[in-house]
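Protocol step 4 of 6: record predicted structures for both targets in the notebook before any analysis. Target 1:
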Amino acid sequence: MTDPSDYTPPKVWKWENENGGPFASTNRPIAGPTHEKELPIGKHPLQLYSLGTPNGVKVTILLEELLALGYDDAEYDAWMIKISDGDQFGSGFIDVNPNSKIPALMDHSTNPPTRVFESGAILLYLAEKFNAFLPRDPADRAECLSWLMWQMGSAPYLGGGFGHFYHYAPVKNQYAIDRFTMETKRQLDVLERRLTDNRYMCGDEYTIADIAIWPWYGGLLLGRQYDAAEFIDAESYTNAMRWAKEIDARETVKRGRMVNKHRGELHEQLHERHDASDFDTKTADKLAAAE
């Protein structure tokens, strides 16, 4: 690969070579399907097509939270979309999300079925559908939605910026790492200041704002993202760390993190979820033992 200091951009960029890194084979400058593939449909009205990444975990945590509160209509089928295999470019998935990103949701309780894509939109859709985890007071609701949108706008700098250049990029570029580390730490300071006088992002109420922010920033602080906890001095963000650990301890969050997970300890991986009993009987370790 060319030394970044020697690179002069052409007048018109052309896609000629993969750019290296673990996601190079799935990166391309055009949209649309690469192959025909229908999506499976399970027994529940809510059909989730996802992967156990931070954006996917947002939705499975919320669904598990809703079920724990007794919202039986929040039962769902979760199907794994293997990004490394290019499942997100199948024709069926693109019918649900033309942007080819997980997660994507189909709600078959409506006629015709309702498609929802982008993780923040899915959280808001479900919160409004079940009237839960979204404050009713107009001022509190505005605060919650502001923090939800903060996450949607900020996380690309954390993931596509800091995470990519610090952890995934095939070459270490100091300028890029410094640039996105600075921004990531600024964002962590935003959280630290907000959580100094607030238990959760919207005060004492646990909302979709926490559910959206935690998988990205809680995961980073707890050492689950990019092997970077020491590099960013995670322990110095004491209030954000307190918040991250408190949410991490919720049983609903533990279950949500397992759904569509494909890495790590086998007993923590539930590749597909179709029933609550699957957590006890169909984790990857149990399926492997039964073979």
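Target 2:
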Amino acid sequence: MKEILLATAAGMVGTFAFAVIYHVKGRHLLYTFLGGGVTTFILMLLLTLTDGHALLSNIAAAFAGGVYCMVCAYCRKAPSTVFLIPTLFPLVPGRNLYFSMIALVRHSRAQFVDNFAAAVEISFGIAVGVLLSSLFDVFVLQRYLVRRR
């Protein structure tokens, strides 16, 4: 559990730095900071519980992050991408892409294929999670959150 909390804190700091670098407005920084924590915590928890199954873990983390961002967008009256892009930042498979490029340069075909396949799997998981959260937004959140106002 200690490793999960440490990774969550690192994800939150990375999300905050990403949001500051890309000029997210100050009134939205806290929400992107918390969103990075949500996605990182869910990712790390599910990776631990599923023995490293990256696809399902990234789908669930991206879905939770997407729903969180949609709710923030409704509550803060801002576009959801303001929250979504920084919130999904900790999920990006940069490590796998880096190691696949190193393997490509060193002509290590097996390592390249393994790392590149892992990066594609993670990217696919993020895309599916965001798609599912968008569908959830259309069919659930807009019906219940928008009607209240």
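Step 5 preliminary note on target 2. DSSP finds six helices and no strands in the chain. The helical segments are 2-21, 26-49, 54-76, 80-88, 94-105, 109-148.
Proceed to step 6 after PI sign-off.
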